[in-house]
Amino acid sequence: MTREAAGFDWRPSAPWENLRRRAVLLSRLRRFFDERGFLEVETPALSAESVVDRHLDPLRVVLFDDPRTPDHGMERWLQTSPEFAMKRLLAAGATAIYQVARAFRGGERGPRHNSEFTLVEWYRVGDGYEEGMRLLDELSACLLQRGAAERLSYREAFTRHAGFDPFTLDTPRLAKWIKSRSPAVPEYSEEDRDSWLNYALAEWVEPRLGCDCPVILYDYPASQAALARVRARDGEPAVAERFELYVDGVELANGYHELLDIAAFRARTATNRQARTDDGKPSLPASPRFEAAMEHGLPACAGVALGFDRLVMVAVGARDLSAVLAFPDERA
Amino acid sequence: MATYKTSDFRKGIKVQIDGDPYVMVEMNFVKPGKGNALYKCRLKNLIRGSVLDRVYKGGDTLESADVEEVEAQYLYKQGETFVFMNNETYDQYELKADQVDDNWKWIKEGTVCKIMLYNGLPVTMEPPQHVNLKVEYCEPGARGDTATNVTKSVKLETNAEVLAPLFINQGDTLRIDTRTGEYVERIRV
């Protein structure tokens, strides 16, 4: 019996036509940024520092000196995004940069997730919240030809599709509401508001976003700010200046009006570290080089990370990344 | 008993929930934004056939079900009980009519079936995907009429009725797809 007959899939899972479309989209994307004066940069995929996010798990690599003791050496982390490195470039004087990076995330596998994937990330100094969304919208229109995006706030989206206000409903009532409509829900603790909101987002909101035209979801709860600025106005709940692009129910990009405040960065990172410890996850290294860059000063900017494989998937009308990856995890 | 962690979740694993065995028929990994991972699972009850949708979070576990599949040949029916025998161990398994369900239509003495054992007890059976059965009764065939899109009802040796083309005669042997209950072809014996 040949290896192929024994089940070794050596052929690409993506049809040639899709791989051709992928190449065309990538060259159009590069032209889009080149025409706007962005500089293409490259930063390490292996780094000593890592973004500390409660739900992002970087893969650990050891740079051994002696191959006979492969577990002894410097610890490195495959980057979940090139965010830290690109912000160091901005602090050092870059003004408009983009990168077509390989990113890696542990524990993510499924039709819309591959542990290794292509992340396009860009930053432009001087852009605010509105400019950040507008540039993403332009790129989406240029690559997908699906027209301008509808802007939908997180609050409107939940009110419309999940049937509750995510800013005013208290957590016990929120949990009760979700459980009454969806008996299959996992047990989250009563304090874990974001997990309940996340469940409702996945179950009722996301599948309905971007079906007619692309949607930019914006103004997230402040607790989900990650590295975006938080805007607080009198009489309104504080919101994170964070936005995401959705097309055909698929999340394609995540952007921030970038946080510049080092104290806020340290506080959020500490919260995430504590949450990771509570979740039983190993600790991630400190990030002294990134913090030094933040102390030096990150210029005011907006930045976006876009999942390029998913964008191609949506562009060709597929529902599974294996249709646009030559060799997804199962046959890598 | 072994447990499955969410990282082991995949189609086909057999798990135990509220005392019943289930097979995972769908597993979808969902992770919106920077949020926590969700494992959306569809599970089929191996005894009742009912379907259950559950969502798990990373780190959740499910107990594995003590389920085993064996091959056994159908021996005979006694009252409402179908009796099968494992050809290797000579163990006999008894299944009630509701456990055999519609599959009685496709089994005759000697048909080798798959029997699912849960905690050592038989719970379901599955006939071969294709079976060859003789026509016990039908209206006479129309000679020369080879059209397959016009059908008539024929009664098989198991007493099951299926639709078959007009040219089929009493005594012919038919190949049946047991998943759909449809006629496939006439077999020369």
Give a description of the structure:
The complex is a heterodimer of chains A (332) and B (189). With 332 residues, chain A is of the alpha+beta class. Chain A is built from nine helices and twelve strands. The longest helix of chain A has 20 residues, at 16-35. The two termini of chain A are 22 Å apart. Chain A is globular. Chain A has helices at residues 16-35, 83-91, 129-144, 154-161, 171-181, 193-205, 262-278, 288-296, 308-315, and strands at 39-40, 46-47, 60-64, 73-78, 96-104, 116-125, 150-153, 215-221, 230-231, 239-247, 250-257, 301-307. In chain A, helix 2 runs parallel beside helix 8 (288-296) and helix 4 (154-161) packs across helix 6 (193-205). With 189 residues, chain B is mainly β. Chain B has three domains: 3-64, SH3 type barrels, CATH 2.30.30.30; 67-126, Beta Barrel (OB fold (Dihydrolipoamide Acetyltransferase, E2P)), CATH 2.40.50; 130-187, OB fold (Dihydrolipoamide Acetyltransferase, E2P), CATH 2.40.50. Chain B has a six-stranded antiparallel beta sheet with strand order 1-6-2-3-4-5, with no helix packed on it. Chain B has a five-stranded antiparallel beta sheet with strand order 9-8-7-10-11. In chain B, a hairpin with a 2-residue loop joins strand 7 (67-78) and strand 8 (81-85). The longest helix of chain B has 4 residues, at 97-100. Chain B is elongated. The N and C termini of chain B lie far apart (49 Å).
Q: Decide which structural class fits the backbone of chain B.
A: mainly beta
Radius of gyration of chain B: 21 Å
- How many runs of DSSP E, i.e. beta strands of chain B? 16
Low-confidence stretches of chain B: none
Helix content of chain B: under 10%
Question: Uncertain runs of chain A with pLDDT below 50, 5 residues or more?
Answer: none
Helix content of chain A: 25-40%
pLDDT average of chain B, as an integer?
A: 90
Q: How would you briefly describe this protein structure?
A:
The complex is a heterodimer of chains A (332) and B (189). By secondary structure, chain A is of the alpha+beta class.
